[in-house]
């Protein structure tokens, strides 16, 4: 479990910070109100904290000695203090603290909470540093690495393009403008032929103040442009803001492709995105891809007699059964109403049929309970092979077999004519 060391001698700020830490999911908090208490906390046999949030001015350590203690224990540290002194601030940033935040407004606490939330996610995010100078790469990597991102390096355009191809977790590239052979413009053009700005962001960098280069870089598809000599905090803020943009677009796209009730993919995703992917799927000998259409029996009667809230509970419960059946590479979607679809990737027919039959049995044996009411579910299933990626043909065949299942008494599975 993530553990936070909070060192704060003001009771008001302590309560406010603890509340924010809980909001961002950090529930195990070691609270100390002095240097001595912090030292005692670190010596407890309950595991070392993975993050420290500290004030600089403590009753028994008025000059920021608490940062040295955290450094001694190798704990990533955020300074949250009322002490505004440029020299002090520079001193502790040079020591390697993650950030130096002033307690000068309610927004500062929100900033700290957002930073802590991001620090938990950042190790999964790849950032590529492209620069022909090894020294420059290392300096920039050290700055960006303070926020715990996964750092990759490349010394040339070709190496950077190959790294992007090899590592799909890279969301942002910091690219030097001046490089021998292929410069930053060449890299940017090549990236934009393969990656949309909403998928991989590029921040241009240069040590030379040339407005024309900055404008050209932005016109070619860069998300931002920074001076290499900018303060480290500015670089980190620009990185964070550009990643926020990418993830907001991803979130919006995900919302557009997901069913809001069940969380499954929706019809739009299935017909627009999944079909393209399915057409590229290889198939093993003796196996095939399969499409199953599922329709809840008598769902309209459930809605009419028990209400839409109960109907929603039925749909959510059924979606969970489907997700338990599906494997990682399979696609589960809600087409609308009480109609669902599963696309099985590279399976033997017996495996698909047995899995779906188990689904029918499990659904029938799992009544839905909602507001004191209980109702048994039944579903009918039609199955068809996806031959040569012909999604439309498989959909028609599965639909035909679905209604054959309903005509045969409901709660049935039909996989052949």
TrEMBL record:
Is Phosphoprotein included in the keywords of this UniProt record? yes
Q: Does the keyword S-adenosyl-L-methionine apply?
A: no
Matching SUPFAM superfamilies, A to Z?
CheY-like, Nucleotide cyclase
Tell me the ranges covered by the Response regulatory domain, including all copies. Answer: 3-118, 126-243
EC numbers on record: 2.7.7.65
Parts of the chain that traverse the membrane: none
Q: Which residues form the GGDEF domain?
A: 287-417
Q: Which reaction does it catalyse?
A: 2 GTP = 3',3'-c-di-GMP + 2 diphosphate
> In this chain, where does the modification 4-aspartylphosphate occur?
55, 176
Keyword annotations from UniProtKB, A to Z? Phosphoprotein
Q: Name one GO molecular function term.
A: diguanylate cyclase activity
A biological process (GO) annotation for this entry? Answer: cell adhesion involved in single-species biofilm formation
Stored NCBIfam families:
GGDEF
Listed name of the protein: diguanylate cyclase
- UniProt source species: Roseibium aggregatum
Q: Per UniProt, what is the name of the gene that codes for the protein in this document?
A: pleD_1
